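Narrative of activities, Objective 1.

The group set out to show that a structural description can be obtained from nothing but a protein's sequence at a throughput compatible with the screening campaign. Below is one input-output pair from the validation batch, recorded exactly as produced.
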Amino acid sequence: MQGSSARTLRRLKYSCNSSSSLLLLAKDCGGNGITVVGEHKVLPLCCNYTTIITTTTTKTNILSRRFCFGESLSSIHRWHVRSLHAETDAYLATELTLDSVVKIFTVSSSPNYFLPWQNKSQRETMGSGFVIPGKKILTNAHVVADHTFVLVRKHGSPTKYRAQVQAVGHECDLAILVVESQEFWDGMNFLELGDIPFLQEAVAVVGYPQGGDNISVTKGVVSRVEPTQYVHGATHLMAIQIDAAINPGNSGGPAIMGNKVAGVAFQNLSGAENIGYIIPVPVIKHFIAGIEETGKYVGFCSMGLSCQPMENVQLRNHFKMQPQMTGVLVSKINPLSDAHRVLKKDDIILEFDGVPIANDGTVPFRNRERITFDHVVSMKKPNETAVVKVLRNGEEHAFTVTLQPLQPLVPVHQFDKLPSYYIFAGMVFVPLTQPYLHEYGEDWYNTSPRRLCERALRELPKKAGEQLVILSQVLMDDINAGYERLAELQVKKVNGIEIENLKHLCQLVENCSRESLRIDLDDDRVVALNYESARIATWRILERHRIPSRMSSDLVSDQTNSEIDSACSNH
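Output recorded for this entry:
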């Protein structure tokens, strides 16, 4: 062991810049004193830690991290080189980013999901961003969500420049902006993406947080790297937790480690002090690569599985797992996923692409760290395949699964698009979405209709394009008197035909050839209307409530829409 340490010492010694530092490794000396070798101080090594002392002409820095013997020299050297920047991160970050970080001014207007034909009042927000190769600006998706107008400003400049949103990934909370003005790019430099930092490595978050107008730098260390809930996109992706404050306005700014970007600041922990999160480089690269290859945001893949840990011994015995086997139990499978074709409920997933899955659902990650296997799945490209090894009825099988981004039955967000709606006889029909439920307030989980909330969070789609259509509200008129209490119920059938989505409902109503129109709702409730009278009443109700169109533009073309409205007005 001593020979191994000596060889490592010699290799580390010559991998450094000899004019600025010298690396010395110390074994446990059994005491608490300091051993002096020449003019350099060496501290005793305890608890199997490797202590690296970097000595310059002015100070001695003591840098410690637990290394395993046999760990690759490159990882030890990378950690050391990064650590050399620890004390100067804030200064270097400021100098490095002055010509790269920009302040973003956004004017946005969100839809009103209770009145889907109109928007809420516009609001102004500010955020941060930074230049990446290709004359592009990277920022957070929530900085430009539902935008109507975007401006950017360079550090030290009074001029604001118009920016366009080129691509947005709301799941990963990232967006790319472009600026056409060549004057803006004069003197601007791009930042390079680095690696995932190790625990306790120093990072500096640069941006324009609230409380001032100039650039700000806050310093912290990495405390955790694991999949985390992304608040904006309601997804579960890898994130880095740091102990630096990330305040409103910091969003979209870079987290600098050494002279490269370690991540993008995007959220903090509510109710806690100085706990922030940054989006790591692998997620950023996945986002950018998809846009470069396809010209649009492609999303993050999923197997469409709901799995249960296999940590209980009796549970493993019940499913005939051998002592050396580990894995997770398949509970649900999304019918739209390719896994639904080959996997079955109660299968045990043992490996994903040759990587063993532990009983708690994790896989190895870096040096003695673990991460959920969902992260490995999410980093796959759309249409990429993976080999899944499963245990079924005590026998092992290997299946090839094609991975794709999957959409839930009830969308979790609807940014940058107008909500769909259809109005007939004063009854407003909309597809159920989580933004619709959010209109019930911050405590929407408890204040929204319980049945709709449960379906939004739990139900899976049975086929592509399926939507849960609800009767949102009834705009009162003689034609619908008595039906007002049927609001917030799901629509099941129109004239005996089960509806697939809002567009299907619209087609069934518009093409009705019967004298009476019947709509079946949840709880076995029924709506019956004289069709011709209802068509005439629809135009009257629209005019009374100043609603410009009876249906959203995504349901029919403008020409068809105008023909329908014209037909109504002629009655």
